[in-house]
Design goal:
The strands form 2 sheets. A 4-stranded mixed β-sheet has the order 4-3-5-6. Strands 1-2 form a two-stranded antiparallel sheet. It folds into 2 domains: 157 residues, Up-down Bundle (Four Helix Bundle (Hemerythrin (Met), subunit A)); 60 residues, no CATH class. It is globular and about 45 Å long. By secondary structure, it is of the alpha+beta class. The protein is built from 8 helices and 6 strands; from the N terminus they run αααααββααβββαβ. Pfam families: MDMPI_N. InterPro entries: DinB/YfiT-like, Maleyloyr_isom, MDMPI_metal-binding, SCP2_sterol-bd_dom_sf. It comes from Actinokineospora soli. Keywords: Isomerase. This is Maleylpyruvate isomerase family mycothiol-dependent enzyme.
Length: 240
Protein backbone atom coordinates (compact mmCIF):
# COMPACT_ATOMS: atom_id res chain seq x y z
CA UNK A 1 0.00 0.00 0.00
CA UNK A 2 1.41 3.37 -0.92
CA UNK A 3 2.04 5.88 1.86
CA UNK A 4 -0.08 8.98 1.38
CA UNK A 5 1.73 12.30 1.37
CA UNK A 6 -1.44 13.67 2.99
CA UNK A 7 -0.29 12.03 6.25
CA UNK A 8 3.00 13.93 6.24
CA UNK A 9 3.48 17.21 8.10
CA UNK A 10 2.32 20.00 5.77
CA UNK A 11 5.76 21.60 5.42
CA UNK A 12 7.40 18.22 4.70
CA UNK A 13 4.70 17.37 2.19
CA UNK A 14 5.22 20.68 0.41
CA UNK A 15 9.00 20.28 0.40
CA UNK A 16 8.73 16.86 -1.25
CA UNK A 17 6.53 18.22 -4.02
CA UNK A 18 8.66 21.34 -4.52
CA UNK A 19 11.74 19.18 -5.03
CA UNK A 20 9.79 17.29 -7.68
CA UNK A 21 8.66 20.55 -9.30
CA UNK A 22 12.27 21.68 -9.61
CA UNK A 23 13.26 18.34 -11.12
CA UNK A 24 10.36 18.46 -13.61
CA UNK A 25 11.21 21.99 -14.73
CA UNK A 26 14.25 21.07 -16.82
CA UNK A 27 12.62 18.47 -19.11
CA UNK A 28 9.54 20.65 -19.54
CA UNK A 29 11.55 23.72 -20.53
CA UNK A 30 13.74 21.59 -22.80
CA UNK A 31 10.65 20.34 -24.62
CA UNK A 32 9.27 23.86 -25.01
CA UNK A 33 12.65 25.17 -26.18
CA UNK A 34 12.48 22.72 -29.07
CA UNK A 35 9.22 24.20 -30.35
CA UNK A 36 9.48 26.92 -32.99
CA UNK A 37 6.65 29.21 -34.03
CA UNK A 38 5.16 26.68 -36.41
CA UNK A 39 5.33 23.86 -33.87
CA UNK A 40 3.68 26.00 -31.18
CA UNK A 41 0.84 26.73 -33.58
CA UNK A 42 0.39 23.01 -34.26
CA UNK A 43 -2.10 20.81 -32.42
CA UNK A 44 -1.42 19.48 -28.95
CA UNK A 45 -2.93 16.25 -27.66
CA UNK A 46 -5.77 18.27 -26.08
CA UNK A 47 -8.75 18.71 -28.42
CA UNK A 48 -9.03 22.28 -29.64
CA UNK A 49 -5.75 23.43 -28.12
CA UNK A 50 -2.49 24.18 -29.91
CA UNK A 51 0.81 23.67 -28.16
CA UNK A 52 0.79 27.42 -27.60
CA UNK A 53 -2.43 27.06 -25.62
CA UNK A 54 -0.75 24.44 -23.42
CA UNK A 55 2.38 26.54 -22.82
CA UNK A 56 0.31 29.61 -22.00
CA UNK A 57 -1.90 27.59 -19.67
CA UNK A 58 1.15 26.29 -17.83
CA UNK A 59 2.40 29.85 -17.31
CA UNK A 60 -0.96 31.16 -16.12
CA UNK A 61 -1.41 28.11 -13.87
CA UNK A 62 1.83 29.02 -12.10
CA UNK A 63 0.52 32.53 -11.52
CA UNK A 64 -2.83 31.20 -10.31
CA UNK A 65 -1.07 29.01 -7.77
CA UNK A 66 1.03 31.99 -6.67
CA UNK A 67 -2.30 33.57 -5.75
CA UNK A 68 -3.13 30.58 -3.55
CA UNK A 69 0.29 30.66 -1.90
CA UNK A 70 -0.12 34.38 -1.24
CA UNK A 71 -3.45 33.60 0.40
CA UNK A 72 -1.75 31.03 2.62
CA UNK A 73 1.07 33.38 3.55
CA UNK A 74 -1.03 36.48 4.27
CA UNK A 75 -4.33 34.99 5.39
CA UNK A 76 -6.13 37.28 2.93
CA UNK A 77 -8.40 35.43 0.52
CA UNK A 78 -6.86 35.40 -2.96
CA UNK A 79 -8.54 32.93 -5.35
CA UNK A 80 -6.50 31.27 -8.07
CA UNK A 81 -8.52 32.84 -10.90
CA UNK A 82 -11.11 35.64 -10.86
CA UNK A 83 -13.36 33.30 -12.85
CA UNK A 84 -13.24 30.41 -15.31
CA UNK A 85 -14.01 32.84 -18.10
CA UNK A 86 -11.01 35.00 -17.16
CA UNK A 87 -8.80 31.93 -17.07
CA UNK A 88 -9.90 30.83 -20.52
CA UNK A 89 -9.54 34.36 -21.93
CA UNK A 90 -5.95 34.64 -20.67
CA UNK A 91 -5.03 31.33 -22.29
CA UNK A 92 -6.61 32.30 -25.60
CA UNK A 93 -4.96 35.72 -25.55
CA UNK A 94 -1.49 34.28 -25.12
CA UNK A 95 -1.48 31.15 -27.27
CA UNK A 96 -0.25 32.78 -30.50
CA UNK A 97 2.53 35.00 -29.16
CA UNK A 98 6.07 34.78 -30.48
CA UNK A 99 7.80 31.54 -29.50
CA UNK A 100 10.50 33.38 -27.55
CA UNK A 101 7.89 35.32 -25.59
CA UNK A 102 6.00 32.16 -24.70
CA UNK A 103 9.16 30.44 -23.51
CA UNK A 104 10.26 33.40 -21.40
CA UNK A 105 6.78 33.75 -19.95
CA UNK A 106 6.78 30.11 -18.86
CA UNK A 107 10.23 30.43 -17.28
CA UNK A 108 9.32 33.63 -15.41
CA UNK A 109 6.01 32.26 -14.16
CA UNK A 110 7.70 29.13 -12.83
CA UNK A 111 10.28 31.24 -11.04
CA UNK A 112 7.54 33.38 -9.47
CA UNK A 113 5.88 30.24 -8.17
CA UNK A 114 9.03 28.88 -6.58
CA UNK A 115 9.88 32.28 -5.10
CA UNK A 116 6.47 32.62 -3.46
CA UNK A 117 6.70 29.05 -2.16
CA UNK A 118 10.02 29.92 -0.51
CA UNK A 119 8.28 32.64 1.53
CA UNK A 120 5.88 30.32 3.36
CA UNK A 121 6.70 29.15 6.87
CA UNK A 122 5.64 25.85 8.41
CA UNK A 123 2.37 27.24 9.77
CA UNK A 124 1.38 28.74 6.43
CA UNK A 125 1.67 25.35 4.70
CA UNK A 126 -1.16 24.12 6.92
CA UNK A 127 -3.56 26.91 5.89
CA UNK A 128 -6.90 25.98 4.37
CA UNK A 129 -7.57 27.34 0.88
CA UNK A 130 -9.96 26.57 -1.94
CA UNK A 131 -9.07 24.81 -5.17
CA UNK A 132 -10.42 26.49 -8.35
CA UNK A 133 -13.05 23.72 -8.40
CA UNK A 134 -14.29 24.88 -5.02
CA UNK A 135 -13.04 22.00 -2.89
CA UNK A 136 -11.07 22.84 0.27
CA UNK A 137 -7.36 22.06 0.23
CA UNK A 138 -4.37 22.82 2.40
CA UNK A 139 -1.56 25.01 1.15
CA UNK A 140 0.69 21.93 1.21
CA UNK A 141 -1.30 20.53 -1.70
CA UNK A 142 -0.51 23.51 -3.95
CA UNK A 143 3.01 22.35 -4.98
CA UNK A 144 1.50 18.96 -5.84
CA UNK A 145 -1.02 20.71 -8.09
CA UNK A 146 1.82 22.52 -9.87
CA UNK A 147 3.80 19.31 -10.31
CA UNK A 148 0.79 17.53 -11.75
CA UNK A 149 0.04 20.31 -14.23
CA UNK A 150 3.66 20.44 -15.41
CA UNK A 151 3.93 16.70 -15.88
CA UNK A 152 0.58 15.88 -17.48
CA UNK A 153 0.53 18.93 -19.72
CA UNK A 154 4.14 18.19 -20.64
CA UNK A 155 2.76 15.01 -22.19
CA UNK A 156 -0.06 17.01 -23.82
CA UNK A 157 2.54 19.07 -25.70
CA UNK A 158 3.29 16.01 -27.83
CA UNK A 159 6.91 17.10 -27.89
CA UNK A 160 8.79 14.03 -26.69
CA UNK A 161 7.56 13.59 -23.11
CA UNK A 162 5.46 10.49 -22.40
CA UNK A 163 3.77 9.14 -19.30
CA UNK A 164 6.61 6.64 -18.87
CA UNK A 165 9.01 9.59 -18.50
CA UNK A 166 7.17 11.25 -15.61
CA UNK A 167 8.62 11.33 -12.10
CA UNK A 168 7.81 10.73 -9.34
CA UNK A 169 5.12 8.52 -10.86
CA UNK A 170 3.85 7.24 -7.49
CA UNK A 171 3.11 10.75 -6.25
CA UNK A 172 1.45 11.65 -9.55
CA UNK A 173 -0.77 8.58 -9.25
CA UNK A 174 -1.71 9.56 -5.72
CA UNK A 175 -2.67 13.06 -6.85
CA UNK A 176 -4.77 11.70 -9.71
CA UNK A 177 -6.57 9.20 -7.49
CA UNK A 178 -7.28 11.93 -4.93
CA UNK A 179 -8.90 14.00 -7.67
CA UNK A 180 -11.02 11.03 -8.76
CA UNK A 181 -12.19 10.20 -5.25
CA UNK A 182 -11.87 7.24 -2.91
CA UNK A 183 -14.05 4.16 -3.21
CA UNK A 184 -14.28 0.38 -3.37
CA UNK A 185 -12.06 -0.20 -6.42
CA UNK A 186 -8.57 -1.47 -5.64
CA UNK A 187 -6.23 0.12 -8.15
CA UNK A 188 -2.79 -1.46 -8.37
CA UNK A 189 -0.01 0.21 -10.34
CA UNK A 190 3.17 -1.66 -11.23
CA UNK A 191 5.96 0.87 -10.68
CA UNK A 192 9.11 1.06 -12.84
CA UNK A 193 11.33 -0.06 -9.95
CA UNK A 194 9.39 -3.31 -9.50
CA UNK A 195 7.31 -2.19 -6.54
CA UNK A 196 3.53 -1.89 -6.54
CA UNK A 197 1.38 1.01 -5.39
CA UNK A 198 -2.20 0.34 -4.32
CA UNK A 199 -5.00 2.89 -4.10
CA UNK A 200 -8.70 2.91 -3.19
CA UNK A 201 -10.51 4.43 -6.17
CA UNK A 202 -14.10 5.56 -6.59
CA UNK A 203 -16.38 3.13 -8.41
CA UNK A 204 -19.64 1.25 -8.13
CA UNK A 205 -18.29 -2.19 -7.25
CA UNK A 206 -15.48 -3.75 -5.26
CA UNK A 207 -13.08 -4.94 -7.92
CA UNK A 208 -9.36 -4.86 -8.72
CA UNK A 209 -7.85 -2.97 -11.62
CA UNK A 210 -4.17 -3.24 -12.46
CA UNK A 211 -1.60 -2.09 -14.96
CA UNK A 212 1.78 -0.44 -15.54
CA UNK A 213 2.02 2.86 -13.67
CA UNK A 214 2.26 4.94 -16.87
CA UNK A 215 -0.83 3.29 -18.35
CA UNK A 216 -2.74 3.72 -15.09
CA UNK A 217 -1.91 7.43 -14.93
CA UNK A 218 -2.85 7.92 -18.57
CA UNK A 219 -6.21 6.25 -17.93
CA UNK A 220 -6.90 8.20 -14.74
CA UNK A 221 -6.31 11.49 -16.54
CA UNK A 222 -8.52 10.54 -19.50
CA UNK A 223 -5.49 10.27 -21.78
CA UNK A 224 -5.22 6.52 -22.20
CA UNK A 225 -7.55 3.56 -22.77
CA UNK A 226 -9.00 1.32 -20.10
CA UNK A 227 -8.04 -1.57 -22.37
CA UNK A 228 -4.42 -1.10 -21.28
CA UNK A 229 -5.39 -2.31 -17.80
CA UNK A 230 -6.49 -5.67 -16.45
CA UNK A 231 -9.68 -6.23 -14.47
CA UNK A 232 -12.86 -4.24 -14.92
CA UNK A 233 -11.96 -0.53 -14.87
CA UNK A 234 -14.90 1.65 -13.80
CA UNK A 235 -16.24 4.30 -16.14
CA UNK A 236 -14.61 7.63 -15.37
CA UNK A 237 -16.01 11.10 -15.74
CA UNK A 238 -14.20 13.37 -18.22
CA UNK A 239 -11.04 14.75 -16.64
CA UNK A 240 -11.06 18.38 -15.52
Amino acid sequence: MTRSTATSAPADRAATALDAVRAATEPLLAAVAGLDQRALAGPSLLPGWTRGHVVTHLARNADALVNLLTWARTGIEHPAYPSRADRDADIHAGHDRMARVQREDLIAAGERFLHEASRLDADAWGATLFHPSGRPITAAEVPELRLFEMCVHGVDLDAGIGFADLEPIELLLEIAVRARGEGPVTLVADLPDGRQASFALAGTAATEVRGPAAAVLAWLTDRGPASALSGEPPALEPWG
